[in-house]
Write a structure and sequence with these properties.
By secondary structure, this protein is of the alpha/beta class. The chain has ten helices and six strands; from the N terminus they run βαβαβαβαβαβααααα.
Amino acid sequence: MTRVLLVDDHPVVRTGLRMLLTAAGIEVVAEASNGDDAVRLAGEYAVDVVLMDLQMGAGIDGVAATEQVLARPDAPRVLILTTYDTDRDILRAVEAGASGYLLKDAPPDDLVDAVHRAARGETVLAPVVADRLLARLRNPAPTLSVREFEVLRQVAHGRSNREVAKELFVSEATVKTHLVHVFEKLGVDSRTGAVARARELGLLRD
């Protein structure tokens, strides 16, 4: 029988998942409401799959928890189940070693099948997630120069062109030129759009 650790900060969601998995013959051996407890319980119980949410309020997030769970010998598989489907979230989870990435609107049968497949060592991706990863491989993230990245990072912190120029010891005209190049590379036409796109691509961290 496949044994699962549920990780989600919403009790109602955990209850629903437990009922679904139990009805399908999957044993839910423990539940965690945050990433720290997930790591601890994954070490205390022998489970095949950790069904992991991404964002859970205080403490480490699902990606950090995934990394810590998988760092242990004989670690279980980790299957991400979340509402977040941005490129950044997907890539962070895959890079952390997650065996799969599903969205919470997945049909119940697909979720049950994904848990079984993850337990067997297979990779399971929601169709939209697979499409995003494929698109990312076909169109890699643009490369910003060191100075362009520094300017963008300052902008992300809410600084004006004058403040950025002062911080980086360059002229305002130079800052504007760098921003024009950033806009072109990211395919946007505003400072806000550049920051949002860079975060989506994982070029900037919050």
